[in-house]
Write a structure and sequence with these properties.
By secondary structure, the protein is of the alpha/beta class. It folds into 2 domains: 182 residues, Rossmann fold (3-Layer(aba) Sandwich), CATH 3.40.50; 120 residues, 3-Layer(aba) Sandwich (Rossmann fold). The protein is 43% helix and 18% strand. The strands form 2 sheets. The chain has a 7-stranded mixed beta sheet with strand order 3-2-1-4-5-10-11, sandwiched between helices. The chain has a 4-stranded parallel beta sheet with strand order 7-8-6-9, with helices on both faces. The relative contact order is 0.17. The structure holds 6-O-phosphono-beta-D-fructofuranose (F6P). 6-O-phosphono-beta-D-fructofuranose binds next to loops.
């Protein structure tokens, strides 16, 4: 296949994730090496619709590989979810003579990319989200840093929880997936890990199981308890109130929130972002179109964008097994 690409554009979209800058850097530098011109679209699809587009050179991505957030900024655009928005976005890209657009983001951003590809734009997607919930890939940029940030915070909460003999419920992000919760719960030795994938929707039953577990552990001499709860389940404050009422153990809640999205990316996030960015440019140079880059079975691979968005993934069974084994759910 021959590539006839002369100019590309790159944007970051949806929730920011540590390592997005490393991906932008790899895309920009890789593209320049191929002789492509590079444009940066600011603030995701929202910036595209407002024609907030700048030229990028090698220096535009200097000194960013170690930085959290995204130098291109990001946004969630409701206008881009409309037909008019997608058509306008495609028109603006054509006006800039963009031959291919790289979208770094999660599932929602990829759906926007699919819509743009249907308007004749050549799209390349790189998975960047702390949630790890993109079906076609075992790895998303930002997940590793977010888990390490959450793990560090939970370790600190353990110290004070243990000193005071309390039960601590720590709510972690992940949208409707429990990947951050399972990884951090296992890595911090939490007594219980609650994830949407194993939740039957009955909050009272869940609370009763937590209380039974706390009572059983109390009987065995344990004086403090860590519960990692995924935001996809929520209700942390209600759970705390009920646990304290039923067991008499002082129960406090920490919702970790946006701290999980920030900070300097881990080595793994920088490395994977760079590998995925370079793979994207390789695909373009080889003449491919409309691909999603992914990490599968230990390798960087790519899928047709439509196929990638049709894929589904379940929490790996070994993770749910270990989660169940170490805790009561
Ligand atoms: O997708 C990343 C994420 O941080 C989720 O974990 C969370 O549910 C969501 O974004 C929060 O989004 P917003 O920044 O729009 O509040």
């Amino acid at each position: 296949m021959e590539s006839n690409i002369k100019k590309i554009a790159v944007l970051t979209s949806g929730g920011d994730a540590p390592g997005m800058n490393a991906a932008v850097r790899a895309v920009v530098r890789g593209a320049l090496k191929q002789g492509f011109k590079v444009l940066g679209v600011k603030r995701g699809y929202q910036g595209l619709l407002e024609d907030d587009i700048v030229e990028m050179d090698a220096a535009s991505v200097s000194d960013i590989i170690q930085k959290g957030g995204t130098v291109l900024k990001t946004a969630r655009s409701s206008r881009f979810a409309t037909k008019e928005g997608v058509e306008t976005g495609a028109r603006i890209l054509r006006e800039h003579e963009v031959d291919a657009l790289v979208v770094i983001g999660g599932d929602g951003s990829f759906r926007g990319a699919l819509d743009l590809s249907r308007e004749g734009i050549n799209l390349f997607c790189i998975p960047g989200t702390i949630d790890l919930d993109v079906a076609c890939t075992d790895y998303t940029i930002g997940f590793d840093t977010a888990c390490n940030t959450a793990m560090d915070a939970i370790d600190k909460i353990r110290d004070t929880s243990s000193s005071h003999g309390r039960c601590s419920i720590i709510e972690v992000m992940g949208r409707s997936a429990g990947y951050i919760a399972t990884h951090c719960g296992i890595a911090t030795g939490a007594e219980d890990v609650l994830i949407p994938e194993l939740y039957n929707g009955d909050i009272e039953e869940t609370i009763q199981k937590l209380c039974d577990h706390i009572e059983a552990n109390k009987g065995a001499g344990k004086t403090h308890f860590l519960v990692v709860n995924a935001e996809g389940i929520g209700h942390s404050e209600y759970m705390a109130e009920k646990i304290q009422e039923k067991t008499g153990v002082k129960t406090v809640v920490t919702i970790l929130g946006y701290i999980q999205r920030g900070g300097s990316p881990s080595c793994r996030d920088r490395f994977m972002a760079t590998m995925m960015g370079v793979h994207t440019i390789d695909l373009m140079a080889m003449g491919y179109s409309n691909r999603v880059v992914a990490f599968k079975d230990g390798e960087i691979v790519d899928y047709d964008i439509q196929k990638a968005l049709r894929m589904r993934k379940d929490m790996p069974q070994d993770i749910t097994r270990v989660t169940r084994l170490l805790v009561r759910f």
